[in-house]
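It is worth pausing here to work through a concrete case rather than discussing structure prediction in the abstract. The textbook approach is simple: state the sequence, then state the predicted structure, then interpret. We follow exactly that order.
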Amino acid sequence: MKESVRGGGSATGSQHHGAPVPHRDQHGLDPVAVIGIHARFPGSVCETLDEYWQNLVDCRDCVGVPPDDRFAAAAASQAGSSGVREGGFIGNVDAFDAAFFGIQEEEARLMDPLQRLALESAWHCVEDAGYRATDLSREETGVFFATGKSDYEELLYRDGTAVHAKLATGVATSIVPNRVSFALGLTGPSLAVDTACSGSLAALHLAAQALRNGDCTTAIVGAVNLILHSTLSLSLEEDGALSPDCRTKSFDAAGNGYARGEGAASLLLKRLDDAEADGDHIYGLLIGSAISHGGRANWLTAPNAVAQKQLIVKAWRRAGVDPRSVGYIEAHGTGTPLGDAIEFNAISQAYGELAAGQERDAQQRCRIGSVKASIGHVETASGLAGVVKVLLAMRHGKIPGNPHLNTVNPMCDTDGTPFRFVRETEDWQPLQGPDGIALPRRAAVNSFGFGGALGHVVLEARGEMNRNADNQISSALPVLPLSAKDEAGLRRYVQRLHRFVTSLAGEPGPADDQRPEFDDFVYTFQVGRTPFPVRLALVAQDWPSLEDLLARLEAGGEDCNILRKGRASLPAAAPRDELTESTVRFAQQWVDGEKVDFASLYTRGQRRRVSAPGYPFARSRIWFRSRLQPVA
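Step two, the predicted structure:
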């Protein structure tokens, strides 16, 4: 491993405390970079990472009554509601842009919405990383999706849906990742992972191992969860897992179970060396992970504290970092008095074993929280919900607080430990080494499934590369190409981009380092967006000029720097130099559909890919036709 990965100019966690690094397992030698993220969780109306983050920072309780359209969807089979009075719900789960993915409507009606969510999430994740699906299809790209019970299948069967050739693929769990691989033309491993609530961390672990083993060069890791029928909810309620007041009070003395939730998330992964060479935007690094089972316990769904402790020790040893350099742990935290206590004590005991023989330090430097308090328990997607939360916390330097945490569970005694529970959002100040240089922020995410399957991952922040030291750096062509399937899609894209660019051009904060360079932004659209038939291009030199052009477009205006298909550009207000004229001619060729490729203008890693708005799907309601519903 490169020295820079373990801190570069900063000290490692072990140097910080003057003790040897814990034994490093060979599985943890190669860090894996997260270069793309998509997340769609409760409370995120616009389905953006910024919205998800803001909800967490504001300690917002995103649990509420089911959306109105959820009852309409469930009523098609006369099955009643979801069986949950309140939960963490996402909207428009009955809507899908089938035509975008080349799927006939009749087939789409029989597709589990889990498959639809997975397709959309994977597509936007790839775009967020600044890539096209065709880029990933040129090399082996794996797809690892966590998924579970299909409520849609139960709705279909209860409705008596007639046997159809597309029914088998519509409801099969294995098809969730396979559908993504097929739609994007990906030839690497394609696996569905079902270990219940630890599923997405298990999928993340398997993907990382596949990358390290050379089974694939890039990997999409995702998870989807929906509540469409009452059966599972009623069973969990009968078992005592659900909170009577529909709130997840993680690690609180009043904890009485959890609220169910829904969500979808995807990550795009690469080995760190490849991501750096390709100029990828890196959200953070996976430096250690492990999965296991609790073995024999008091009963099937009972957590095993010893097994949890052993798993945490294994994951941290694979990471090769001193646990005292870990500043935050995103816990499973289902809000049951016994379950939370067992988890906390497993974490504390694991720390004790890893730090054995070292000087005891009672400073409470490591905070503990759980995203379930904000969005409910999104079950198969809960691990990734925590991972995305941690990566965003590292990026923004804040640790979100936990709603409903008033009095800490007395069985979670933090006295004399390095841990404390987060009530309100706090700044995340990096720990420092003995030389006073800041260590990279590090965190862990923990989860376990109700059948005993466990997962644990260790994450590390990655500072932005110093591009001034890159001799290959050069300006990008000052052109933002934009395309869509149809004119309506192009208008939606313009509106979305205008809002995004206005937010960048008009605000002094957040910090400037959160704002992409303009050249990287246009470069990302040049090489990282799939070109569709309806096209235009904007010739802009900076953020203000791009904002002005987008405003003109949205208002229906024209400009000499707005290039449309089959239309000569308007006369420029001032004479253009030769380079600008050449740029306009090249962009016009692309707009007219000629075989020109912006990527041919750059060498590998010459510019960076950045996170930017993705394609605006044209969703419409697609649901099975109920045989029980009377014909109007």
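Step three, interpretation. Confidence is low (pLDDT under 50) at residues 1-21, 76-80, 466-471, 507-512. The two ends are 67 Å apart (CA to CA).
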